[in-house]
Target: HD domain-containing protein
Amino acid sequence: MKFSGLVSCLAVAGAATAGRIPTQQRSHKHALPTTKIANIEVVDTPLVRDALELIKAFIPLQPYLYNHLMRSWLFGAAAFNNNATLKAAVDLELHAVGTLLHDLGWDMRPNSPWHSENLPFEVDSALGAVAFVKDHNLSTWDENRLERMHDGITLQGMTSYLNGKNIDTNWIVQSVIFEFPGPRSPLIRDADYDSILAEFPNDTVFRGTNETFTWLALTKPEGARGTFIDYFGVSYVPGYGPQTNTAFELITAGVAAEIAQYPNSTFQSHI
Ligand SMILES: *[C@@H]1O[C@H](CO)[C@@H](O)[C@H](O)[C@H]1NC(C)=O
Ligand SMILES: *[C@@H]1O[C@H](CO)[C@@H](O)[C@H](O)[C@H]1NC(C)=O
Ligand SMILES: *[C@@H]1O[C@H](CO)[C@@H](O)[C@H](O)[C@H]1NC(C)=O
Ligand SMILES: *[C@@H]1O[C@H](CO)[C@@H](O)[C@H](O)[C@H]1NC(C)=O
Ligand SMILES: *[C@@H]1O[C@H](CO)[C@@H](O)[C@H](O)[C@H]1NC(C)=O
Model:
């Protein structure tokens, strides 16, 4: 779950080389097959179908996670369907895979392939999503597309760092922001909100999120330290220890060491 901010820009495919590339290999900038889910028109490629299949594995243990991922994708898609200019500018397949897989690191199943010992869940999720796409050996996914997706997933909770980033990275994050409680966004039609929430209800999303975040602090404190997950560890995990901040501790300890090493250097404060 994350915060807010938006930018826009439009990538134009290289016209000179486009003619030599078979149609389906440059399909992400052209019309893709579509289908309807919860009455929302969405892209329907083999890669997106596989991503959908992958996250169905969350349903038994974490149904709230599956619903959260589906809503994030569909809210974004509903906003695109409501604005043709926007829809033409966004990489719809990248958006689908990026939103559907943006919380792979929440997977609480034993032996989850996305549960590292020491990385924040956002990074686990991004690495998992990139590996998932790479496993498909698709010539349409170059490093640039992979990185846009990686950034959108990694930066999902760091909205204030998104200014100046590309439209695809921003729209992964913006789609997740639609999940935040509060007034409905004017970018999405009421009927679309209604059909999405009817099929993918959000009635346990807070309880599920609280449990998952506590579980992350419990099972990988190293990946929680210095992130907001720390609060869940401090509050709910016995023996977790006090709140820590690596940068603060490093700098404050460094001040004392620096004074010992350079006792005669003058330093003047201006605050
Ligand atoms: C539609 O999207 C474009 C591109 O992001 C934006 O400039 C424009 O303001 C949007 N239009 C509406 C009505 O929101
Ligand atoms: C992708 O390529 C690897 C290595 O050549 C191969 O093992 C794998 O089966 C391929 N995967 C798909 C989905 O084609
Ligand atoms: C869940 O959806 C309802 C209905 O749109 C909304 O009022 C509420 O804020 C949403 N809750 C969360 C946690 O997003
Ligand atoms: C969050 O989850 C933890 C662990 O299950 C639990 O102890 C705590 O009471 C929950 N917080 C709230 C506000 O329900
Ligand atoms: C700091 O200044 C004092 C007094 O001038 C001098 O005795 C001392 O050697 C200096 N220390 C260093 C580390 O330069």
Q: What stands out?
A: The radius of gyration is 21 Å. Confidence is low (pLDDT under 50) at residues 1-27.
